[in-house]
Design brief:
- This protein is about 40% helix and about 20% strand.
- It is α+β, with helices and mostly antiparallel strands.
- The strands form 5 sheets. Strands 9-12-13-14 form a 4-stranded mixed sheet, with helices on both faces.
- It is elongated.
């Protein structure tokens, strides 16, 4: 009588050894299953399916996103973690469609030899970070995941969108992203480096969106974050400034600029603008995101009104504190 494997005597072991039905062929063999049996069960029409080399799903139905991730991690082995665009999605960032939707990018300890296969991109690294666990999955820290994602494509718009997502919703600092680009491979970093450098003079992610929107105006701002004064003293440092007509644009939001006790300072600033004869447009970041056409109309109207009156005697300053 042939010897029965443990899996036949105790079929519940398959469930216990797997993660949501995902298991390695090696684990199946350790339960006494013959490799030929594993192969047959994964053939078309069989009860199981092969997800990756040596990785089995214990049913033949649809595969969830999480099961694909678990399979990739089992394939990568101990120490593997998800990075890149897929990790950003697990962090709940809105990842542009230009980033591959199916690929899972893994970081692998450098001493282990794992080849990329099918939907898994395996990258061995000597700079393996500590993993962050999200929904039971080990992920590279968001700064690393974001930079790993943007260096793999060459299109500026999706790179810009993902960087903004990481800064705005992931609370990454632009300096942290730049530092990660500095210490990692330089391949594919030219565009994100340039974008982050351009943004260093902008005080908030809201202003990044504002700068993009302003390119659609008939007359773009002449300055960003430049101090303005009268003969008697400092007035303010508007987010954007049209010097020829003395028009200021302020992107005002507690979320991006202020704690609530700064509200009084904002009122004092606006009073200084009014006393100096400066016309000011105030915009919330949500308006730029959700109603850009309305913002453009308001700015065009404000510019026309400012141009119709005599320019007040105000001047630019290089450095002065508000």
């Amino acid at each position: 009588m042939p010897r029965r494997g443990k899996w036949e005597q105790h079929p519940e072991l398959l469930t216990h050894r797997s993660r949501e039905g995902v298991i390695t062929a090696r684990d199946l063999q350790s339960l006494g299953m013959d490799p030929r049996t594993i192969y047959r069960k994964c053939l078309p029409g069989g009860p199981w399916q092969r997800l990756l080399p040596g990785i089995i799903l214990l049913h033949n139905g649809g595969v969830t996103r999480r099961q694909r991730a678990l399979a990739a991690l089992l394939y990568g082995g101990p120490g593997a973690m998800i990075t890149g665009a897929d990790a950003c999605r697990w962090y709940d960032l809105r990842v542009p469609d230009e980033f591959p939707a199916q690929d899972i990018h893994l970081l692998i300890p450098h001493e282990r030899r794992v080849l990329s296969s099918e939907y898994v991109v395996a990258e061995r690294t000597r700079r393996l970070p500590g993993a962050w666990i999200r929904r039971g999955l080990p992920l590279a820290p968001l700064v690393r995941a974001t930079t790993d994602a943007v260096r793999r494509i060459r299109a500026e718009e999706p790179i810009s969108h993902l960087l903004v997502e990481a800064i705005q919703h992931g609370r990454c600092l632009p300096a942290e992203l730049t530092s990660e680009l500095d210490v990692g491979t330089k391949r594919g970093t030219a565009i994100p480096r340039r974008l982050l450098k351009e943004w260093t003079d902008l005080r908030s992610v809201a202003e990044i969106h504002a700068k993009k929107l302003s390119a659609r105006l008939t007359t773009e701002p002449t300055h960003w974050n430049t101090g303005v004064r009268t003969a008697s003293g400092f007035v303010g440092r508007p987010d954007a400034w049209w010097d020829e007509v003395a028009l200021a644009w302020e992107i005002d939001s507690f979320e991006f600029h202020y704690t609530r006790h700064d509200y009084a300072r904002t009122l004092r600033r606006n009073n200084r603008y009014a006393a100096a004869g400066i016309k000011v447009v105030q915009t919330l970041p949500t308006q730029i995101r959700d109603a850009p056409e309305e913002v453009l109309h308001e700015l065009e109207s404000a510019y026309a009104a400012a141009a119709a009156r005599s320019r007040p005697p105000v001047y630019l300053v290089e450095e002065e504190a508000a």
